[in-house]
Design a protein that fits this description.
heterotrimer; A alpha/beta (about 475); B alpha/beta (about 240); C alpha/beta (about 220); A: about 475 residues; alpha/beta; Rossmann fold; six-stranded parallel sheet; 24 helices; about 55% helix; C: about 220 residues; four-stranded mixed sheet; 7 helices; about 30% helix; globular
Chain lengths: ~475, ~240, ~220
């Protein structure tokens, strides 16, 4: 029987947790981010005010989601663009595939879009005979390795340059003879440039959907998003419905905050706004413009008043960067499109609470994620709510339910609690006396596998209190 | 007439780390407080609550509220347990018959360093501890209760104590309650990273306001055969000059 | 457009149903003015940001000096065709700076893939972030991304202090109703995907050079 997602997670987490080289690579990457982020924060006079403003903008957008989506659709359609509402992955992929087949698309170039990963668009198009090129440098690299992105902003941060050089030598050009990052970029640029100029379709995501302007905001540093949306004759945007913001002016705060939280920059190098296909008189641009609005579980999350704010996420990656769990197990271990704290909170809603509920438990609830989220999503408390929801849905192990029922009885009766504690100490003392520590019979074997045994005091505090400590 | 505080002793402190509470009593008495220990207390309910078993945590929390209903001020030598009562009881007991009492009890519950600095108004408790010490900023105390300065203010007044900062001092140690058992490999990896940060300072001791963190870190340090020892904050503050 | 009983209607219905439960609103946030430090000297700030962004910014006194600057930049590039936004001021500038260069004008269509450089005007310059705002009217979309060198000819009078002002102008003048595209460009193309090491010149221009003329 194939392992469940939870079992796979435990196995991969154990492996990665012990992988000190992996930890070193990630730590270096995160240290670099921390330094850049701090510099970026210094450019914003009042960071807390910025967070509150971003939270307010997204709250307004989500609270009136239908209105803003309709406004966006009206403006885009008036300019000759097409808006398709996809209830789920299948509908979204079918739309893009059918469009591509109808137009005779042989090659598509794609800029980074987590939603396209979520709906598995790449494999659907490939199966239909369409070659899809990931053009974001990091995505291009993981595509060659046939793996998913490791991180939502920096897809190949788990790789060292010599690994990438070897990969290019094997998959692209045996003449690749250096692992210098600038050189490797030129190799990729040369190959991808051919793709940009021959592709019949450019596919992008959307960082924001601006309702009052009817425009899609796309942010990249490399310029690949620009080329995908300028050169091929068809431009398709695939986006979640929650990306909406009410006004163009909202970007005055959102763009700097996204860049600061994502990479420590003041603003992403190319902050683009696209409102439709090329207009008469413009020198170039796609003749066709399509926006695929993907629901795929988001409207259901909207209906949950406690967790609706999870839809405010602007996909900056800050919570991944600070999360100590992420730093030790890495992005692939999660086994989901979205890793890290936001992934752990979001995935049970988008992909099923039973299969992915383990992610909500794989956290110490340290709260670092909530403290950095630029739109003030209370991430760690949502993990706690997910745990409560799983219990209420009867989705927890019967043995665990029994343990907590017994625990509850003991805690309501002080004598039972005290006796339980005394018994535990005596049992452990006996077990250690018999040399059972670390063996399969060790009651504390989970603890003792990685840690020295806990101390066993002769008396509890309350016993000492009664025996004379109580004199003030 | 000396003021009285009621001691809320976390269950694992009561059973496994009694010296944490003994030292807490010592410090409170030294600065002139009478300490009361309501013996019917058991557990604040955090283990069940954090694992998602709110129906089991709720009666436990109600028991706590009844035990402490007449306490003027409640002091707890644990950031996470004080957080449970102060921050989570209002939601957990929102529909309870004793909701009003719960809110009142929650509002009167303080973590030890918080109580000393913000309520008693004391940062110098007359302690002496001539050793190098590094400080681990436990998550609940730091992020939920906002106690970024208070523990340091107390440590800075201890005679002979040299405070050295560790890198990533507010990164989680990896204990996380049942997380340490359910995901023990990740928990241990995080603990080892924390241990490395501690050992890099060369400090003789590491302290924190959460003894559960220190229990976990001591286990990790012990497994590594490291000489650095953990000591709960009150353990330092209880020490006087020889 | 999708039909009535389609996913579009279902999604909208689900959204409206979901939103019937109100959520506690956060307290109103402070205005944008408090979030960013107000900018007292736009030109100074813009020049500082250009340095940080790795964008070349050369201040020129008049159009003659601008033509000289353009000539110098073009001479430093390999031989080959360039793409220029078809605008009278640029026609004059090219005539003065590089009359012998093979030029493809934006009125002829998209830039050639092999263009050595593109030359365009800008809609505005933004001091806060050291950015150039271009629209489709500035020679089209490819003009600011296809060639390895993008040269922008602008005037100091086009400088606005911050993003809020620039975006406000885009809104008020309904610029996106007349242009299918706009872009705030803040430096040369780059990536840090390999070991977080900054590499200049990813897919877009490696070199972004602004000729900033003091007089109109």
């Amino acid at each position: 029987m194939s392992p469940t997602a939870a079992q796979l997670f435990l196995r991969n987490a154990a492996e990665k947790s012990a992988d000190l080289m992996h930890r070193e690579i990630i730590r270096r990457g995160m240290d670099s981010y921390d330094a850049a982020h701090l510099k970026g924060r210094a450019r914003i006079k009042d960071w807390e005010a910025a967070r509150e403003k971003c939270q307010e903008i997204k709250q307004e957008a989500i609270t009136h989601l239908d209105r803003y989506l309709l406004q966006f659709e009206e403006k885009v359609t008036a300019r000759g663009g097409h808006v398709f509402w996809a209830a789920n992955s299948e509908e979204a992929c079918a739309y893009v595939k059918n469009l591509a087949l109808e137009r005779g698309v042989k090659t598509a170039v794609k800029s980074k879009s987590m939603v396209t990963e979520e709906i598995h668009l790449g494999p659907v198009l490939e199966k239909a005979g369409i070659k899809v090129w990931e053009t974001d440098f990091g995505e291009f690299i993981v595509q060659l390795r046939e793996e998913g992105p490791y991180h939502i902003v920096t897809p190949c941060m788990h790789l060292k340059r010599d690994q990438i050089a070897a990969l290019f030598r094997e998959k692209l050009d045996p003449a690749v003879n250096s692992d210098d990052p600038a050189y490797l970029m030129t190799v990729a640029r040369r190959i991808l440039r051919q793709a940009f100029f021959s592709a019949e379709m450019g596919i992008s995501g959307a960082n924001f959907l601006v309702a009052d302007a009817g425009a899609v905001a796309i942010n990249t540093n490399e310029g690949n998003g620009r080329l995908c949306t300028s050169v091929p004759p068809i431009h398709v945007v695939v986006t979640g419905i929650e990306k909406v913001i009410p006004r163009l002016e909202d970007l005055a705060v959102l763009w700097p905050v996204l860049a600061t939280s994502g990479t420590g920059q003041g603003i992403t190098t190319y902050s683009t706004l696209v409102g439709g296909p090329r207009r008469t008189g413009e020198a170039d641009g796609p003749q066709e413009f399509h926006v695929v609005l993907v629901d795929n579980g988001r409207s259901q999350l909207l209906a949950d008043p406690e967790q609706r704010e999870v839809l405010h996420c602007i996909r900056c990656g800050a919570c991944l960067n600070i999360c100590p769990v992420f730093r030790h197990i890495g992005g692939h271990t999660y086994g989901t499109t979205y890793p890290g704290p936001i992934g752990s909170v979001l995935t049970p809603h988008l992909a099923g609470i039973n299969e992915f509920k383990h992610l909500s438990y794989a956290s110490s609830l340290c709260g670092a994620c909530s403290s950095v989220c630029p739109v003030k999503i209370d991430l760690h408390h949502h993990l706690l709510q997910n745990r409560r929801n799983a219990t209420e849905a009867g989705a927890t192990k019967p043995s665990e339910r029994m343990i907590f029922k017994a625990w509850r009885r003991a805690m309501l009766h002080p004598w039972m609690y005290a006796l339980g504690g005394w018994t535990m100490r005596k049992t452990l003392r006996l077990a250690y006396g018999l040399g059972l520590a670390g063996t399969a019979l060790d009651p504390m074997r989970v603890w003792n596998r990685h840690r020295a045994p806990v101390p066993l005091p002769a008396q509890s505090f309350r016993a000492r209190w009664r025996k004379g400590l109580n004199a003030n | 007439m000396p003021r009285t505080v009621s001691l809320f002793v976390p269950c694992f402190v009561d059973q496994l780390l009694p010296e944490v509470a003994v030292d807490t009593v010592k410090v409170l008495r030294r600065i002139g407080y009478t300490v009361d220990f309501p013996e019917d207390q058991t557990c604040c309910g955090q283990p069940a609550f954090n694992t998602g078993y709110w129906d089991e945590a709720r009666p436990c929390a109600e028991h706590f509220v009844r035990v402490f209903r007449n306490a003027e001020t409640i002091v707890c030598p644990s950031g996470s347990c004080a957080t449970m009562v102060r921050k989570f009881y209002p939601d957990l007991l929102a529909a309870s018959a004793i909701r009003e009492e719960a809110l009142a009890v929650a509002g009167r519950t303080f973590e030890l360093s918080e109580f000393l600095v913000k309520i008693a108004g004391v940062i110098d408790v007359g302690a002496s501890f001539p050793h190098t010490v590094t400080y681990h900023a436990s998550c609940h105390g730091t992020r939920e209760l906002g106690l970024r300065e208070e523990p340091r203010q107390l440590l800075q007044q201890v005679k002979g104590l040299k405070l050295v900062e560790m890198a990533r001092f507010d990164e989680c140690c990896g204990f996380g309650g049942t997380f340490a058992a359910k995901f023990s490999d990740i928990s241990a990896a995080m603990g080892n990273s924390k241990a490395e940060s501690i050992l890099a300072t060369g400090a003789e001791f590491v302290t924190a306001i959460d003894p559960s963190c220190l229990l976990h870190v001591q286990g990790i340090l012990g497994k590594r055969g490291a000489a650095t020892r953990t000591i709960y904050l009150a353990g330092i503050l209880a020490q006087e000059a020889a | 457009m999708q039909t009535e009983a389609s996913s579009r209607e279902q999604i909208l219905a689900r959204i409206r149903r979901g939103l019937r439960t109100a959520v506690l609103e956060p307290a109103p946030a402070k205005s944008v003015g408090v979030i960013f430090e107000p900018i007292s000297n736009s030109l100074e700030r813009f020049q500082q940001e250009c340095v940080a962004n790795l964008m070349e910014c050369t201040l020129t006194a008049d159009s003659a000096a601008s033509a000289q600057q353009l000539a110098m930049i073009l001479q430093s590039l390999p031989a080959g065709g360039i793409f220029v936004q078809d605008d009278p001021s640029l026609r004059r500038l090219i005539e003065a700076a590089a009359p012998a260069r093979a030029v493809r004008w934006s009125s002829e269509g998209a830039p050639e893939e092999s263009s050595q450089a593109t030359v365009t005007l800008a809609e505005a310059l933004i001091a806060q972030t050291g950015s150039i705002l271009v629209t489709a009217a500035c020679g089209g979309r490819g003009a600011s991304v296809i060639a390895p060198c993008h040269i922008v000819y602008a005037k100091v009078g086009q400088l606005v202090p911050d993003l809020a002002t620039a975006l406000g102008r885009l809104s008020q003048q309904k610029i996106l109703d007349h242009n299918s595209f706009a872009c705030v460009i803040s430096g040369s193309s780059r990536t840090a995907d390999i070991e977080k090491i900054l590499v200049q010149g990813a897919h877009g221009p490696r070199r972004l050079a602004l000729i900033l003329q003091a007089t109109a």
